[in-house]
Amino acid sequence: MSLQYLKGSEDRFLEILNCEFPNMITFKIKKEVEGKIPFLDILIIRSQVGIKTTVYRKPTHSDKYVEFKSHHPRHVMTGILGGMVDRALAICDQEYLGQELEHLRNTLKKNGYPAHLIDSIIQRKLEGNTRVKRPASRLRLILPYYAELGEKIKRLGNRLGFQVWFKGNPNLRSILRNDKGKVPLDQCPGVVYEIKCECLASYVGETGNTLAHRFKEHMEPLTRYRNAMNRLNGDSSNISRGRPPTLDPTDAMEQAIQTSAVAQHATQCTGQLRAEVLCKERQFMIRKIKEALYIKFNSNINRDSGIAISDSWTNIIRATSCCLLHGSPAQGQ
Which residues of 168-207 are buried (b: 16+ CB within 10 A; e: fewer)? Predict the structure, then answer.
């Protein structure tokens, strides 16, 4: 926090402040030196005409950044450069801006950045970014980054109208660390799943919730169906407790089997149902695509085929068998 107090009384004020919260929090005072005081990454300067600001770096700051020749996509390098220029423009008063930009030029050159790239980004930021942003494309390709090849694929995507994003490769920490408790698959949110009957009938679905929660939702219509059937047969001993039903038993049974293909099958088959996670996927659209692929390439009791997917997947699935369940594709595939 920033405070104003009578000159010479700051130490007494600090003593009183620390007495208010003993053993809980300790306050300290940072005094200005030669009219300057740092606050986060801002150096506040008191002058005769008022308060001015510039970028602050600790005396131990090394000016080391990601080397330009390091194995990173080009946009990461330009992002570092652009971010530093943006910070200078946001913090520095005009009096100190030129000095800060010159410091950036020298620092980034030492980190291997080409002078023409530094100057072009600084110039663009000074003039304001007037580029017309392209509308977000619907197609997005996420790939591991490889130098040179990654840039070529990104340029190809710009020409053909799809986005290319790069993800980091596994590092030593991600490979060696195993101290995080693993959540059972049926308790993980965002999955594609299969519900299989002992008669080998199969249902494929997806949910943003957990498999246990979704399986319970499939079983609820079956419970309603059986309760309605018991009422129709005059057997009240097997009816679940709760609010008295108002719907006619026949209508309730029809409504229940229309709610879930799994429930409909279970009314016609006495086999045990078992739910299993096929894969985890938190992103909604990718999860819908995976669900549609499993439905398309496997025999099932699903009432619909999921979202529309391209036939170009057929050869890939056949070659890799990645979406085939129980070793055999659906008829016609």
Answer: eeeeeeeeeeeeeeeeeebeeebbbbbbbbeeebbbbbbb
* Packing angle, helices 211-232 and 249-259, rounded to 10: 160
Q: Are residues 219 and 246 in the same domain?
A: yes
Q: At what angle do helices 115-127 and 94-110 cross, to 10 degrees?
A: 150
- Averages of pLDDT over runs of 10 residues in the chain (333 residues) are 65 83 82 88 89 92 90 87 92 92 94 92 81 60 82 84 79 68 82 93 94 92 88 69 72 88 91 92 91 91 89 79 70 54
Q: Identify whether 183 is part of a domain.
A: no
Distance (Å) of CA 152 to CA 51, 147, 157: 49, 9, 9
In a domain, 272, yes or no: yes
- Rounded distance, CA 325 to CA 320, Å? 12
Residue 265 in contact with residue 201, Cβ under 8 Å? yes
Q: Tell me: do 196 and 316 sit in the same domain.
A: yes
In the Cβ-directed half-sphere of 221, how many Cα atoms lie within 13 Å? 20
Domain count, the chain: 4
Structure tokens given for 327: 């070793």
Interatomic CA distance for residues 266 and 226, integer angstroms: 10
Say yes or no: 149 and 245 in one domain.
no
In a domain, 180, yes or no: no
Residue 315 maps to a domain = yes
Report the predicted TM-score, pTM, of the whole model to 2 decimal places: 0.48
